[in-house]
Amino acid sequence: MTSSSETANLLTRIAEALERLAPPRPSDASLDAADAFVWNAEEGRLDPVQEVARVDLSLIKGIDRLRDILLDNTRRFAKGLPANNALLWGARGMGKSSMVKAAHAAVNAEKPGNLILIEIHREDIESLPRLMTQLRTQDRRAIIFCDDLSFDHDDTSYKSLKAVLEGGIEGRPKNVIFYATSNRRHLMPRDMMENERSTAINPSEAVEEKVSLSDRFGLWLGFHNCSQDDYLDMVSGYAAHYGLKIEPETLKAEAIEWSATRGSRSGRVAWQFIQDLAGRLGQNLG
Length: 286
Prior knowledge:
Blueprint: H1 4-21, E1 36-40, E2 45-48, H2 64-78, E3 86-90, H3 96-110, E4 115-119, H4 128-136, E5 141-146, H5 158-166, E6 176-182, H6 190-199, H7 203-215, E7 219-223, H8 228-241, H9 248-262, H10 267-281
Parallel strand pairs: 1-4, 3-6, 3-7, 4-5, 5-6
Antiparallel strand pairs: 1-2
Helix pairs in contact: 2-3, 6-7, 8-9, 8-10
């Protein structure tokens, strides 16, 4: 026969075990701690980011029209006016994620502290409803940002995103907007969609559910490979901004050679060249 103390100890151990198995409690941390956060899905909290890795909006060259569209959408959202979820898709290295972070900074510069940026990792998309629940009761307006978003075969987490963006009884909180970047226009690999079409009884219906995810983004911004002129404009803009001491013709020749060795031209390639050039010149990019 067990004693009362043994029973109490057993119940305590059971309670502790259940506590460890329970999902983490949402964080009550204030969103006034910073203007940018990273969503910690495992702990259910927002971790503040004091210094965001980004470039100034004026340094994003060759995609002026796309920049202005996203900036206007972000500005309207910050003012409490209607605005769309945005999908920035297309060529790698053309400044998609840089543009999101730069637009956030530019709008906040107009009215400091008005807008927060929250990064959610691709693998944590299923926890998006929990994040939305936390933000729904907050006063500050928030851009939830997912970089390099895409879904592969047998991946059903897109359903969580699809429901949050537009579906559900509660709908998307009025103080939240969702921005995502992707190399894929419909967020799904082409062979996955083609396979669905070829094996389904009704091919059009087979891909409709997956393609309809991208339809939840009211704003589509397509990024394409840049021309040599655009690439050189990016290089010149960086060089002037950071005051790199080099002759224009030398800068142009070395930038063209750099892109040739990489086999591509993009904003990322331009920035990598500038980093290499600054290092050779013994100048800091502070």
